[in-house]
């Protein structure tokens, strides 16, 4: 008998009688009036930063200014032509010298400041992790209240997608560790900073910075 | 309690307590984590309902684990992942070795996996000439120090930054005397980046595996699991068979609970969903039993398999905080380790269920509502009955029961307090020395309550 | 109402005043209180050591002593919890009450003629608090309540101190206190330090075993802070003048 069959047989024999899944999954206050400010305040509390912007032009201005010393900035947003466009299929090891990656994400989650990004948006799976800094771009209206809504949104994204994602991740703030005496240090192995841009085309740029 | 030769929890904890300021530092550091957990949980409406929901989802998982395992295997295989089954630690280690051998690889990186600690994978591979670099910062620290992790979420929480500075000076060449966490973390970043970029095989643990989709989720703050997996030609993920959940949307429940319970963060920095290998990459998943299927058959203890390894029970445990993780001499320490370990080896870990005051705080913080302190009590009964207690102890207990069930003997055993001073039930067979050493005994009163009652009320 | 008074063994032998205060209070509230003389111990020390299977004699004796009362009351959360959880005998587990909860839940005590002009720290014993739910637990996200506090609030002149850790275990833990001496003592010292740091003159609680452990540490430290079972405080008539002299 293979280990597989042995394990399955023992499990089957030892597992308790049927227990139903809970029908109702509790959810946070869905009618939260101000999802974007909740999102921003949580994101800032976990070491990230956010800008509400009117469009890509504004993002380009901000990032060129903030990363004027950068040697290599890679973008996954075609709307940002002043940055090097990421090349799918590039050896991920060659991304080691990327100072900043700018990538689109699907949506943000107000309760924890996370953004959901799938493989197709990453250029290479390694990029959002190997880059020294990371910027993510979402639409201001694409913020859900909590993780229950997040997975409902993922389900609808998946059913609309041509192929299901092979890899996807929630990113909440910069890479961090507190392993040394619980002292929080940003930039453990991944990006030392995370900036999330919330695009709101209804806005004029005036009054925002 | 233990009948084996190693030092038991009480002895190891006594050694840890020789340095009282360090005990206080350890206690306060972890209490601070517990307080962060409280604040984070308080911000979630219906936190208690969420815990209950998680617990019920896990009840369902345990009741249909064989079905979910089959479903997961099918879906993962369809996704292009190679699924392996390991009956025990030995088979798990050999599966790993065979994959490494096939790729002619003698160096690999590994992100945090308590399962591989449980299986002693590093030692096994080391003997085969394979170098394993632990990439979680805390795990790297203890690996360089030649120690096991003392905490499943905060592996080097027992180390002071000066000691870490010392270790890094010795192994990574950082300047002597520099113990700044920012500086040391940056040194580790540079050191480990080189490893990520040059290793062809990466091992990760698994936080959750989803039967419905055949994907698995790995949560880290550092990004080390992702750095390893996305740069390697071969990604191997190892998981205990109990890590399954039925559907993807159930992650909504578990990811809300996991990190708030663990560190008080609203979520880990990265919650990565691995579903298919990237083009050209091999992805393996090893499903490990190692006693879990047996444990599933223990009615009183099976729900400890609900554990999602958040370590909230460690941080709240007043005994853990004052005895340190190494005193548990097992891969998973703390209250949850004390109820999981006896299943692996009832003799070796016979002491652990006794390393508790049964205060119950662990059960209250558990995000999946495992009745930890009740299981500690039940393990005590099982261990005494199955292992057999030392003869002297059983005799003392029998004598105690005889005295306590014969009130005549009890009440005439001597003048008030005398029998009690020598035989207080809470000191059974451990003698009173252990009480006296650091505590005074109460002064025996002139008369017992019983004597007072007889004189005044009858 | 006929109440069988269960006085835990160590209270009988070391702290008769706690038994007396308990009895007097119950009588003040109109209970007919009987102390069956042949009682000994609930058996918990053996059970917690893994010898529940040897406690049969103890259990039989307990049933013989107490099965016939309307209620069984004991000034110890820990012993009551043990009986409730492990002595599943009709007429025992369903009518045994810890002293505090008997006053709040059965007798519905709302006024007390008591005064105790001291600064008091309340130690929440785990088996009473987390086991019998005498007070809300700090781990749970649920509305606060505290039955011991509710009663102590009825005492004149009493002042309360706040603790940094309001419901951490003191480390007594039955046989734990000697089997794991080092950790037990450290836990006790830390609890004591929390009370002393906030200026407690008296440490009280509903479980004398925890208080005995804390008292052992206080006395070894030559502290003049004392422990008092909650029944002693609720039964006190100490005026401010007496306190001053």
Structural notes for this entry:
The complex is a heterotrimer of chains A (209), B (458) and C (245). Chain A is of the alpha/beta class and 209 residues long. Chain A contains six helices and twelve strands. Chain A has helices at 3-14, 35-45, 56-66, 119-122, 127-130, 147-160; strands spanning 49-53, 73-75, 84-85, 100-104, 107-109, 114-118, 133-139, 143-144, 167-171, 176-177, 185-186, 193-199. The radius of gyration of chain A is 20 Å and the shape is globular. Chain B is an alpha/beta fold. Chain B has three domains: 9-34 and 294-387, no CATH class; 44-290, NagB/RpiA/CoA transferase-like (Rossmann fold), CATH 3.40.50; 391-457, no CATH class. Chain B contains 23 helices and ten strands. Chain B has a six-stranded parallel beta sheet with strand order 1-10-7-4-2-3, with helices on both faces. In chain B, strands 8-5-6-9 form a four-stranded mixed beta sheet. Chain C is an alpha/beta fold and 245 residues long. In chain C, the strands form two sheets. A four-stranded parallel beta sheet of chain C has the order 2-1-3-4, sandwiched between helices. In chain C, helix 5 (77-86) links the parallel strand 3 (71-74) and strand 4. In chain C, helix 10 (181-197) packs across helix 11 (208-220). The longest helix of chain C has 17 residues, at 181-197. At the A-B interface, helix 1, helix 5, helix 6, strand 9 and strand 10 of A face helix 2, helix 3, helix 4, helix 8 and helix 10 of B.
